[in-house]
Design a protein that fits this description.
Rossmann fold; globular; 20% strand; 2 domains; 470 residues; alpha/beta
Length: 470
């Protein structure tokens, strides 16, 4: 048997998640010294680019690599900006293995199925005047799921020259960081890092021995308010709105944010800290994902896990109403008196929440509570930035409701949290690659890492390739 050529270097190309928060897509490949030696090509995440609309033009562009040559795809978590283009990748020829934790696989199946409806609604003429064909169809999703395999945290899998291991990122249920071990070096892709401590999830695992780090920077230039204050601010938002006889609308992502809000509201009601008013989950996807949270209680922190196993359970209090059908959703508008509505999407760029915003924003006794990141160009960002009127479903809607922002419930680490994470492995780090953030946030974190930790840090550009030599 001929001796295999020694691995000399690998490369990482940033095909998404740079210069923007969304569209995560990183290509990792070996570059053996022999000209005829095959390369091992692996992807980390394959997400949608998201802005004012889900169906933005970049999502329809051909992949800048051959999907059929990719051996494996590792998924950090099930948000669409990390999984939304996987069926397109499969449609275009990918037949490798897809790896994630079990909760991520189950949530991804629901999210991708749900995205078909969203994409269908957003089929529209682009700025060039042409009409997009469908990004993918149901058969592509079915084939995608047939390629999917699951891993437990710390379970190693060998792919070509790499040994890969997932760790708990603490971001959403089942979220993972991935360690890629090769020829004595360790490269870590963080995916999105959790804002620990969180109401439902364990803290993000600590990494101490990474040589290279590809890290997110959604809040790279900002810190959240004190964690102890976030629950008080939520309580105040509910109490004040109910005192005014109004409706509190909470745009929330179906994964994690909805479940966190329900958990906090349920506890507050049990402790008699807020009025016992009707609470509506107006999102079929969020309702189904909440059932997955109940199923995978072992992935939650000890407090949430014990609550689920207790007599009262979790996400099942008497004031909770789940509106699966469109008719039930419309019925919320006719429901008299004070109420809380939690609806998708989290950035108000689609979903049922925009119907509620259209109805409730013009009335000053109501309130809109923003508890998640609002991407540039999204309706949520316009409202957060103080717009006095916004365009919803083709109509101009005045914004007279009280706008409340609680960043402490973000599922992303803030600037100091990111620095603390990097510091934990600073003794072994050779270089930090700052990704998945708006340019201002990424560049701020880059400079902070250089100034305070004395490490080499860069914010890669779209399509840029970096080489790591063993």
């Amino acid at each position: 048997m001929s001796e295999q050529p020694e691995l000399k270097k690998i490369s990482v190309t940033f095909w998404g998640g740079v210069g923007t928060v969304t569209g995560a897509n990183f290509l990792l490949q070996t570059e053996p010294p022999g000209a005829d030696s095959p390369n091992d090509k692996i992807l980390v995440d394959c997400g949608l680019f998201q802005g004012p609309r889900v169906a933005d033009d970049p999502n329809y562009h051909p992949f800048p690599y051959n999907p059929a040559e990719i051996k494996a795809l590792f998924i950090t978590h099930a948000h669409l900006d990390h999984i939304g283009r996987i069926p397109k990748l499969v449609h275009d020829g990918f037949r490798g293995k897809i790896y994630s934790t079990s909760p991520t696989k189950e949530i991804a199946a629901l999210s991708l199925e749900d995205s078909l409806g969203v994409l269908a609604k957003e089929q529209r003429q682009s700025v060039e005047g042409h009409v997009h064909s469908s990004l993918y169809d149901k058969k592509d999703i079915e084939l995608t799921m047939s390629l999917w395999q699951t891993l437990k945290y710390h379970e190693e899998v060998a792919v070509g020259s790499f040994v890969v291991r997932p760790l708990d990122a603490g971001h959403v249920l089942g979220s993972a960081m991935y360690e890629f071990n090769f020829c004595g070096k360790k490269l870590v892709f963080t995916g999105d890092l959790g804002n620990s401590p969180a109401p439902l999830l364990p803290d993000t695992e600590i990494i101490k021995d990474a040589n290279y780090l590809v890290i997110e920077s959604v809040y790279g230039d900002r810190n959240h308010e004190d964690r102890g204050a976030r629950r008080e601010k939520l309580e105040d938002a509910i109490e004040n709105t109910m005192r005014n006889g109004g409706t509190l609308v909470i745009p929330a992502f179906s994964i994690e944010r909805t479940q966190e809000m329900l958990y906090e509201i349920e506890r507050m009601m049990e402790e008699s800290r807020i009025p016992l008013v009707p609470v509506f989950i107006d999102s079929p996807l969020a309702i189904h994902i909440t059932e997955i949270y109940k199923k995978y209680d072992s992935y939650l922190n000890k407090s949430a896990e014990s609550t689920i196993k207790g007599a009262g359970g979790i996400f099942a209090f008497p004031q909770l109403h789940q509106t699966l059908t469109t008719g039930e959703s419309r019925g919320i508008l006719d429901f008299p008196g004070k109420k809380i509505i939690i609806a998708g999407s989290g950035m108000s760029n689609g979903g049922r929440v925009i119907h509620h915003e259209k109805h409730y924003l013009p009335d000053p006794k109501n309130a809109l509570l923003l508890v998640g990141y609002q991407a540039a160009g999204s309706l949520g960002r316009q409202i957060l930035d103080g717009a006095k009127s916004v365009r919803i479903l083709g109509e101009e809607v005045s914004v007279k409701a009280k706008i409340i922002n609680i960043s402490g419930y973000s599922a992303h680490r803030d600037s100091q949290g990111l620095m603390d994470f990097i510091y934990g492995t600073s003794d072994s780090l050779e270089k930090v690659f700052v990704t998945m953030g708006e340019p201002k946030a990424s560049l701020f974190l880059v400079q902070k890492v250089r100034d305070y930790l004395g490490l080499e840090a860069v914010a890669p550009k779209m399509g840029e390739t970096i080489t790591i030599t063993c």
